[in-house]
Design goal:
By secondary structure, the protein is an alpha/beta fold. The protein is built from 16 helices and 20 strands. The protein is 33% helix and 21% strand. A hairpin with a 2-residue loop joins strand 18 and strand 19. The protein is globular, with a radius of gyration of 25 Å. The chain binds zinc ion. Zinc ion binds next to loops.
């Protein structure tokens, strides 16, 4: 037999041990993630991935999606749970620290006030920066800008001239200038509630769309009329804004389609589908409930509301006490002012919208400490997953997740590229992640007891930081960040 030299033997031994190390050491053993979500059913609506994986998070971003075990400082066991992109709520008025806790329990990682919006984009963001549980963002709103320009005495919604008086040409110029100033300061979109500003002419609304189009901003609009009574029907109101979108090129987003269309919601949805098929950028959203909610003193309840909405006094619930109204209490409380829950949406309309793959899910939540506020702000997302997906089989789980993650992100990502990294479980995406038990997830907020956290949401991470662990909120963490379009005009 032929012997090899000691030097050659040592060289071969070195090669063997190097190859052995390469083969047998775990891949990237030195890589330790901040957080690993282990063994969950990862669902990504964009790629279609639906498989058990380990998700590695480093410095707020998703850095690994792997079938192999990953080493981490913190490992969250997601066995039997769904790992989804964090939910993005396009329509949430309750932008307070207290309200964000309810939203986190409902799986929301980004909460956006895009319908009413704000008249002061800088102050709005500054008030939340560094002290928010979840991500936040806002539109510049036609309502608040009109209120400023017309010196309206209302706070959240207009009560005086901003609701009831046509704008002069000087005022209209000031309104569009205010909208454009907000867009220059990075507002995510333009908000509108035409039903709350009924004296705003069709020409004024068209001008606001024109301003939005200049900045590639979508217009999130509560349309002029609800119900199907002509001539002031939701159909006519939808025609108005579709025409404005077509004329100006501004993307259109119709908010809470069910509370506008009521029993004829499917007719509005087919109009939106047809507009899309003709190439218009039109989208819509709904909340999964059969009641709406608004201010009793608003123009929604101007004379004729019963015929328009197809309801009467006993379909209104005074939020402060939970009582159903009569002609006498209606008059008394309308003078006083306050919130009512309005039982006006047929179950078939709610189901048709929730099940429709083009309709996004958004809560239209609001925050008051009253006992009888609408439950939608606390339970929207868990209600879709638990009631409509699991119990009613109205739609499949991946479609429902797409409607609350990817689609809202895509709605805003042309204007605000930050959304390209949200609404996805993909390498490089922001680690905004909601982990829930598909067998138990459900809303618990009811009309009688609305201030209840949803159940079955196990872990929520915002920019890689857990804010909810084993179904309980963590104290003292504020990983929420502003989500904002680029600022094109310095102050
Ligand atoms: Zn609205």
């Amino acid at each position: 037999m032929k012997l090899i030299s000691p030097a050659r033997a040592a060289f071969l031994a070195a090669i063997v041990s190097f190859v052995a190390a390469a083969i047998f050491l775990p891949a990237r053993a030195q890589e330790t993630y901040d957080v690993v979500i282990a063994n969950g059913r990862v669902m990504d609506p964009e790629s279609g991935l639906d498989a058990v994986r380990n998700v590695g998070i480093l410095a707020g971003k998703i850095r690994a999606i792997s079938t192999s075990p990953l080493a981490a400082k913190t490992t969250l066991d997601a066995t039997g749970l769904v790992v989804a992109p964090g939910f993005i709520d396009l329509h949430e008025h309750g932008q307070t620290a207290e309200k964000y806790r309810y939203e986190a329990h409902d799986g929301v990682t980004t909460s956006l006030e895009l319908e009413r919006g704000t008249g002061d984009v800088d102050s709005w963001y500054a008030a939340r920066e560094g002290k928010s549980l979840i991500n936040f963002g806002v539109s510049v709103g036609h309502i608040p800008v009109r209120m400023q320009v017309m010196h309206d005495p209302g706070t959240f919604l207009p009560l005086g001239d901003a609701a009831h008086r046509a704008a002069s040409s000087e005022e209209l110029a000031a309104i569009t200038q205010g909208i454009e100033a907000g867009l220059q300061r990075g507002a995510l979109a333009v908000g509108m509630g035409i039903a709350y500003t009924p004296a705003a002419s069709r020409g004024e609304i068209l001008e606001v769309f024109r301003s939005a189009a200049k900045y590639h901003a979508s217009v999130h609009v509560h349309i002029r009329y609800a119900g199907l009574q002509e001539p002031e029907s939701a159909l006519a109101a939808l025609q108005e804004v579709i025409a404005d979108a077509a004329v100006t090129g501004a993307p259109l987003h119709v908010v809470h389609v069910t509370s506008m269309g009521l029993k004829d919601t499917p007719q509005l949805l087919s109009m939106i589908e047809a507009a899309r098929s003709r190439g218009l950028d039109v989208s819509t959203e709904c909340y999964p409930y059969t009641a709406s909610s608004t201010a009793l003193e608003s123009p929604i309840f101007d004379p004729g509301w019963q015929e328009k909405l197809g309801i009467s006094y006993h379909d209104l619930e005074w939020s402060a006490t939970g009582e159903r109204l009569t002609p006498e209490t209606f008059a008394q409380y309308r003078r006083q002012g306050g919130n009512v829950v309005v039982f006006d949406i047929p179950g078939s309309a709610a189901r048709a919208a929730v099940a429709n793959p083009i309709v996004m899910i958004a809560s239209d939540g609001i925050w008051t400490t009253g006992p009888n506020i609408h439950p939608r702000g606390q339970g929207t997302f868990s209600r879709v997953l638990g009631y409509y997906v699991r119990e009613q089989h109205a739609l499949d789980l991946m479609t429902s997740l797409r409607k609350m993650t990817l689609m809202p992100a895509q709605r805003l990502e042309n204007r605000a590229p930050a959304f390209r990294d949200k609404g996805r479980i993909q390498i490089g995406a922001d680690a905004d992640i909601t982990v829930f038990n598909p067998a138990t997830v459900l809303d618990r907020a009811t009309y009688e007891h609305p201030l209840q956290y949803s159940q079955g949401i196990q872990f929520v991470l915002v920019n890689g930081t857990p804010v909810l662990k084993d179904g309980a909120l963590l104290d003292g963490v504020f990983p929420g960040r502003p989500v904002r379009a680029s600022i094109t005009q310095q102050k």
